[in-house]
Write a structure and sequence with these properties.
Elements (H helix, E strand, L loop, with lengths): L33 E2 L1 H8 L3 H9 L6 E3 L2 E5 H13 L4
Antiparallel strand pairs: 1-3, 2-3
Length: about 90
């Protein structure tokens, strides 16, 4: 059996600038792939309560990971752009 103690496990989260797999400079902030509910509400300019309402109606893109709800940043950007154009409900 090979010793994998020097090999870092692959993470699903954002790569940090100090991660050797990341080519970014040391002062580059981590890439944010998803937002928690309060962060998402603030980012799109609505209340946390309104976000909860549209999440429950499945009107906004989100992912459930166990009990956590994550709002993918890219999907939120697309959703907001489409809402501005009037193409998504």
């Amino acid at each position: 059996m090979a010793d994998n103690s020097t090999t870092a496990p692959v993470a699903l989260g954002p790569l940090l600038a100090t991660d050797p797999r990341c080519n970014a400079q040391a002062n580059t902030p981590p890439i944010v792939l998803g937002l928690r509910p309060r962060e998402a509400a603030k980012a799109i300019g609505i209340s946390a309560r309104k976000l909860w309402e549209i999440t429950n109606r499945r009107e906004i893109p989100h992912v459930k990971l166990g009990r956590a709800i994550i709002y993918p940043v890219h999907e939120l950007q697309l959703w907001l752009t489409d809402k501005a154009k009037g193409t998504r409900t």
